[in-house]
Amino acid sequence: MSRQPRPAVPSIDIEELVARREPGFSLEAPFYTHPDVYDLDLDAIFRKHWLFCAAEAEIPDPGDYVTIEIGATSVIIVRDDDESVYALHNVCRHRGSRIIEDACGSVGNLVCPYHQWTYRTDGSLIHAEATQEGFNRSQFGLKRINVRTVAGLIFVCLSDDPPADFDEVASKIEPYLTPFQLGGLKVAHQTDLVEEGNWKLVMENNRECLHCDAGHPELTSAYFPFLQSDVTEVPPRQQQLYERYLKALDRLAITGAAAGIPQRTYRELDNRATGFRITHFPLDGDGASFGWDGKQICKKLIGDIVDPAFGDMSLHYQPNSWFHFCSDHAVVFRALPVAPDKTIVRTTWLVHPDAVEGVDYDIPTLTEVWEATNTEDRRFVELAQRGATDPAYVPGPYATIEDDVNDFVSWYIKRLANHFGGGRDHLGLVAQAAVGN
Amino acid sequence: MSRQPRPAVPSIDIEELVARREPGFSLEAPFYTHPDVYDLDLDAIFRKHWLFCAAEAEIPDPGDYVTIEIGATSVIIVRDDDESVYALHNVCRHRGSRIIEDACGSVGNLVCPYHQWTYRTDGSLIHAEATQEGFNRSQFGLKRINVRTVAGLIFVCLSDDPPADFDEVASKIEPYLTPFQLGGLKVAHQTDLVEEGNWKLVMENNRECLHCDAGHPELTSAYFPFLQSDVTEVPPRQQQLYERYLKALDRLAITGAAAGIPQRTYRELDNRATGFRITHFPLDGDGASFGWDGKQICKKLIGDIVDPAFGDMSLHYQPNSWFHFCSDHAVVFRALPVAPDKTIVRTTWLVHPDAVEGVDYDIPTLTEVWEATNTEDRRFVELAQRGATDPAYVPGPYATIEDDVNDFVSWYIKRLANHFGGGRDHLGLVAQAAVGN
Amino acid sequence: MSRQPRPAVPSIDIEELVARREPGFSLEAPFYTHPDVYDLDLDAIFRKHWLFCAAEAEIPDPGDYVTIEIGATSVIIVRDDDESVYALHNVCRHRGSRIIEDACGSVGNLVCPYHQWTYRTDGSLIHAEATQEGFNRSQFGLKRINVRTVAGLIFVCLSDDPPADFDEVASKIEPYLTPFQLGGLKVAHQTDLVEEGNWKLVMENNRECLHCDAGHPELTSAYFPFLQSDVTEVPPRQQQLYERYLKALDRLAITGAAAGIPQRTYRELDNRATGFRITHFPLDGDGASFGWDGKQICKKLIGDIVDPAFGDMSLHYQPNSWFHFCSDHAVVFRALPVAPDKTIVRTTWLVHPDAVEGVDYDIPTLTEVWEATNTEDRRFVELAQRGATDPAYVPGPYATIEDDVNDFVSWYIKRLANHFGGGRDHLGLVAQAAVGN
After folding, report:
1. How far apart are CA C388 and CA C384, in angstroms?
2. Chain A positions in Cβ-Cβ contact with residue B204 (cut-off 8 Å)
3. Shortest distance, CA A111 to any CA of chain B (angstroms)
4. C210 touches chain B (CB under 8 A)
């Protein structure tokens, strides 16, 4: 019945830890374990940056909503009658009750279950019972949150002063995404996976494929083994495979061009507030999916794509998401921190709006590679978390092909430095840094 | 295997928060969420005030006991051989073992299970093995706690300097309770409900019925809809109902008078240390119970009551309880804090000592309204707790008919102010404040 | 989804608490409950002293390992190809992943599951992929931990400056243990019991048998009731039992001498860093085991023992273990702290290497007394923990026959004083204190 005693933690100087971070090495332990860093991460990263939250396809109709939890902050993302998307704080202005309990659903108005204060989907209060004299409804609407949609992806920023580079990033990403007509796709499947590890370990794990050969047998059968290495010399035994790789590269360029999708790789991971990378990767076999044979897994191609052999268009977005776009489906990943040692990863599979389950696709085939990969990654994240919690842990050196991990970590350290410096150099960071290829 | 890292919480200035509380509005978030406030509540409220703990009917015979947990403090409430009630700390004076593990039971002596130190039910040590030379048994009795019984209700106060106004409150309440002969009733049923919310949200929820219409369909069928409003103008469609209400009022006054029960309402919620309210409410239909038809639910009336149409005599007691007395049963509620965000609510149904289950009453009928209401209230408390934990929460304005909530909150704030001021103005508060009607 | 608020705990002055400890009384509450004391215990006791960790019999062959968790520190204890035993930190030097997840097993090399960094069983790194230029493998071996084996028992010390008296203690204990040939025994059974109590309450409970009469009916049937008392006057009703006790004493001395085992009792519990006690106790009935009739429970005697009536050779070892050696089996106990109020106790039963389950012994008979006793002790520890958490707890006086508890507590307090004093007087403590008989 009594409360558990508080586990004491030594206090730390985070600014000092930020200042002394050694490039090329993993972070010091407190970044992965210390509750003060976790709280700082919520403030300096998750309450200050544009977070990917949901696909518009999750709320296709007026009144459709999803709720998301960013730390202790609950956000209602809801489509209004005029089709626009609002992000609202999920806290009644009467006595503070949660208004929406469910993760998703559909409403006419937003009615608080406690005393029935009633709000429109734009947040304005339209009914409150037995109010005191002088009560002014207009002062008690649900608080609004900054929200942006980019080619069918919904981003929110909890700060009143969002990073200024988002427009620029959106304008760079949009041409790649628009041909997929994401807003009109259908959610075929969605899963939530709780991983017992710090959110940065989840992101770091996503940012390298050094662990793929041994760790993801389902996934590596589709990718070519030349993706992360400088191919200066191909061993004779791989010569045939390499030629197949080059052909696949050529074909996806043609396929992409046919759909009007740019081919250029952007890699702006650590030189701006809204770090991102967008790249095309060929896939082996039929080049359409992550299965061992690369075969199409939904019969209907999406958006403007006409040739299944489009490979994998990969978008990495900081701080909290990654995406894979194929010719016949897209897979969307979103990580949100729950505790210093706990992160929730949501995966959403999108297909053509007219695709019919059991006819055009089936869920096991559609999801098997990433379901397996997610489960394997969870184990790696949890092993890394447990190691980082051990007093014997010391930062170790990244491999040559872990450069995106290093860039993610460098971005993170710069964002903290920016936060400590007052958060006024969003654009300065971009100007000073070398911009990616 | 390793301990979880400590969730950091910002430090707060509680005295400042107390000083700036805005009347008419719910409390600021830390009062509902912050562990330092929780600890202060244990010290300033639960260790300083008279708490309702149990009905005497729970320990009818010598040796009968119940244990209760007030924060980390475990209390044995036990009936001695001479019928008096003792409250003892449940900690052996040898090596500190818990003596009683069960929530209730019956003993001859209190024997520590570890090394068999043996105490009488008045706490005195009567046996200890292999003690050192010079050991003086009289110095090692179980520590006693202040205990008072009022017309069959047991109150304890952990402080050595209990609030001085308890005698006065007891003398005001006793005439209402004595006719029920509570000490001789029978416990028909008892439930414990854990609610994931701060204890004050549990109390606030109990102190208003604005949420009843939509939230408690089982309960509102029995109450008249005129209870919390100033009835200056009754709409024509309610005229008939209103006349029934007035008749019910008249009848319960007659019924009460026949049993020698005062009719006056006391409302001294925020003007004294031992805040309370006692009121009569008529019930619709037969006026005997909370069921939709108001019918008697136990065949035997209790105490001196002779007419079932007694309605609901309601006692609100601060900090931690509320009671409903009907002609044929009483329902007793007790809230105790378990954590900043967890409270345990015990509900006890009392009936005539000779009432036989299955003959005079059955448990489902006896308990259904309050079981349903408790479960619904738990949801509201938990929604409010989750909202108060959200950084977006701000105090909101109470409705006109949430005045008892406001009074509870004002009482609480005054008790904290009193605690910070040294706790010497128990009586002063009463003298300064306007006494209720 | 949000983190639980931190339970606040008042800060304490541990040095002051250490200084004012009253001999003959149990410790003040914070020693059993406060997270800061827990952290100090990990630093000053568990990271500074030689801990008993495992029997060599648990890792008989090259590549066999066990992992143990000392606070957040995970240790791999592994037998190398050359038969020597290594203790290694279970943290990969690349990105910090746990290397071994299982509690025991067998490996060729130690391969990190994340990116396959590969280490020999002596900790040296032999493979790492795609390393940066200039990477020096020799600098990235698994960190080694001090490890010692004493007559088949494995001890580790996490400190680089282990207590200097271990050699002396080892030389005193070894003659008692060597005849049992422990290293060559077979693990017949092993259990882990999580007890919801501070590790010191687990140890204190082990250091006295005042609770045995009422608390351990299975165990006390085998022991004579004269063990912990000064037998100056035997009551007539016990005269016959006492004569049996004296005969059993004589026989075990002869049995021990035949096996070359010293008879002298060492009792050096509170006068040195590596506190210990080793004693012979006769057992009733056949004198071979803890069963009610003292009968042999494995058909094969172990080591050099030739007569089953060897009684119980008991080794108490500080901070964290105790052992019982009989003629036909040994039982090994190891306690490790998990949280301020949680301890894990591992019990291991060892028998002759050629003993066959179902033929020479069966698990239920072999384990029943200590399984029952462990379970009973867990309850006592948990009752004591709950009492110590109660604000009403005050230290109580030890009984005359709780002197080993007092010595354990005194040892503990001296170790903390030593820690606060800089940890330089390991040998000084021994020199100053009176050495046991």
Report:
1. 6
2. 95
3. 12
4. yes
B44-64 mean pLDDT: 98
Is the overall model pTM greater than 0.90, yes or no? yes
Q: Which of A35, A46, A76, A373 is nearest to A215 (CA)?
A: A373
Note whether A37 and A126 are same-domain residues: no
Indicate if B23 and B133 belong to the same structural domain. Answer: no
Q: Does C36 touch chain A (CB under 8 A)?
A: yes
Domain-embedded: residue C176: no
For residue range A141-190, list pLDDT tens digits in order.
999 999 999 999 999 999 999 999 999 999 999 999 999 999 999 999 99
Torsion angle defined by CA atoms of residues B347, B348, B351 and B354, in that order, rounded to the nearest 10 degrees: 150
Q: Which domain holds residue B79?
A: 51-150
Chains that touch C (3 or more CB pairs under 8 A): A, B
- pLDDT tens for residues C345-384? 999 999 999 999 999 999 999 999 999 999 999 999 999 9
Same structural domain, A110 and A33? no
Total structural domains within chain C: 2
CATH code (residue B77): 2.102.10.10
CB contact under 8 A, A6 and C35: yes
CA angle A421–A424–A428, rounded 5-degree value: 105
B295-to-B254, B289, B290, B326, B355 alpha-carbon distances in Å:
18, 6, 8, 11, 17
pLDDT in tens, B285-331: 999 999 889 999 999 999 999 999 999 999 999 999 999 999 999 99
Same structural domain for residues B298 and B281? Answer: yes
Average model confidence (pLDDT) for chain B?
Answer: 93
| pLDDT value at B5 more than 60 | no
Q: Is the CA virtual torsion A43, A48, A50, A53 positive or negative?
A: positive
* Interface membership of C424 toward B (CB under 8 Å): no
Neighbour order of strands in the sheet with B312-317: B186-195, B342-351, B330-339, B321-325, B312-317, B276-281, B266-268
Q: What residue ranges of chain A have pLDDT lower than 70? A: 1-9, 227-231, 423-437
